[in-house]
Amino acid sequence: MNTRRGPISELRLYLTYLAQHIKSRMSYRADFVIANLLFVFMAASQILFVSLVFSQVRQINGWGFWEVLLIYGLSSLTIAVCQCFTGIVTHLPYMIIRGEFDQMLTRPVSPLWLMMMSRFNDRWLVTIFIRLLVLLIAAGHVFSPVKWSTIALLAGFFVCGLTITVAINVIFAALAFHVLEIRALYHLYLGDLYNLSYYPLTIYGGFLQLLLTWVFPLAFVSFVPISYLVEKTSYARLAALPPLVAVAMVVLARHLWRTGLRAYESTGS
Amino acid sequence: MSSGRIYKRLTKYLEVTRLEMLRIITYRTNFVAMFFNSFVLVFMYSYLWRAVYANSPTIGDLTLSQMLTYIFVVRAIVVPFDNDIDWRIAERIRTGDIAIDFIRPANLQLMQFATAIGNFVMRFITTSVPVLGLGAWLFGISAPASLGHFVLFLFSLLLSFTITTSINYIFGMISFWTVSIHGILFAKIFVSEFLAGAAVPLSLFPAWLRSLAMVLPFQAMVNTPLSIYLQLTPPQGIVHLLVLQVFWAVGLLGFGRFLLHKSYRQLEVQGG
Q1: 3-class DSSP string for B177-203
Q2: Which of A31, A32, A33, A34 to mutate to test the interface with B (most CBs of B within 10 A)?
Q3: Residue A20's pLDDT band (boundaries 50, 70, 90)?
């Protein structure tokens, strides 16, 4: 069904689609500005909240202001980039209902890539820059002086975290093949559960800590890496795990997607 | 006006309320989602504030118990005051269906309030009560200072609800006079998102932000009832806050009514 293309030509195809998409989206200037502003306000209120709290105390659970901002920065940047490029994937249930999904199966590219290519969620753009800024400024305050090894490690951890969050998105999309109502759980994950990862994991009770480490591995996105880099808490010992968790999530995501897609195709629609 | 006629006029609006409640019920997964949303949020804030309070008995003049109570009451009661009638009105204006609403033998503003009441009652039963119950049980939120305070708190909540709904109604009606209302409605979401996201008692705000917040109706919606509940202000302060709230409530209701009459004109002009 799918002609096999090499990764380079897939990438070139992707970039072409992307360029086209950006051009057509820019024509919706007002919509673009408003949506971006909304996310910016959301980010601003999150940062404001942390600032307000730290205007009254010096540390939370042993974590100072800039360290908490560092955790927030890395975690929020990861999800922002993730949603920007792969947020569309979770619209799968809607596309199935509207019958739009079937045409994707006829294109020469795998439907997953096609979905990611067709909707570059530009509402996140400004927020990405802001959160990146927060991350960099916080890093500047926490690691002084900043070593190249720290930057390299941060970048590496970011890639792992991004992989994990993208995989989670795909998993939810794959589950939607079986249970359409999974979107409620997805919104809970994206809106509330993910929020928890903005703060030091150790403030939460045992149950939540376990949930965020071994069920939704969000701890590996930001808290474990930062713990390792600032050498705090026992979670630093898990620092080798993010890449492994990322790989495991990708494998799981691919498997679930393949089975879900096959089940969908075989129902003869 | 005989009591029979009053009753007859009232049943119209009660019907609107009933329909809205039914509408909310049909979104079953939405309930559960709303509940879990509030639940996880207050969980997060509870843990967060407990960690913050680890070394200080009071922050911004509030004890941990008061802070938790503040968070809980805001999330459980005040946040559900908000509704989407601004979007719904705007949509009906856009499609022209608003003309049907004008023909109906009922006041549009009152109908929107009836809808808002139905919306809130349903959300209160399904979300607020469980969240508050959990709060009292797990996190020990404190009860109001006295029965008198509680009564005033309820009165203040009533005003808060009126203000919130009035604001939504007014924003919805504004689309009679603007080409695209969406930008403005989003702007409204920004501000409430911002203020709710930084949902901390005003005493934590830096001075300049506090004066800004005092000017906006935000403090009339959230700060006033909570200040009464937690007894954050002395009795004279309470009277002052309540008077301000009444001023906002009456003012916004009046402005809403004014907009309604102007909109009749607007509809005539457009030949609808």
Answers
A1: CCCCCHHHHHHHHHHHHHHHHCCCCHH
A2: A34
A3: confident
